[in-house]
Write a structure and sequence with these properties.
By secondary structure, the protein is an alpha+beta fold. The protein is about 40% helix and about 30% strand. This is Reductase.
């Protein structure tokens, strides 16, 4: 289930974002979270399975597009289709826009799209 980020999830979100190759440094993680908190055009979501928050997906939203900037799944929950489910949920949420990955999320996005076929 897709859940909108709120500040009480900050540490969990940072932990999940740290699974992205470019988000390893604490300073970078803090800057990334702050960019989602400060910018209305950026939206961060967490993915909940039962009682666990196991994934994160961040989107830059414009009038016509929703660009996936960040996407990561806790390693303990990988290969269960969670990435595909997160992308599907974001695509449904932003059904009036074109949903596409950026350079950092393209490989993961393409893998999930192949799995969903």
């Amino acid at each position: 289930m897709l859940i909108r980020y709120k500040k009480s999830f900050k540490k969990i979100a940072m932990g999940l974002l740290s699974y992205m190759p470019r988000e390893k440094e604490l300073r970078t993680l803090k800057e990334t979270i702050e960019s989602y908190e400060a910018n209305d055009g950026r939206q961060l979501f967490l993915w909940k399975v039962d009682e666990d928050l196991v994934g994160v997906i961040g989107v830059a939203v414009s009038e016509t597009t929703a660009e996936i900037l960040h996407i990561a799944v806790n390693p303990s929950f990988r290969d269960e289709g969670i990435g595909t489910e997160m992308i599907a949920a974001v695509t449904k949420l932003f059904s009036d826009r074109t949903v596409a990955p950026n350079e950092a999320t393209n490989r993961f996005f393409e893998k999930c799209m192949k799995e969903s076929r």
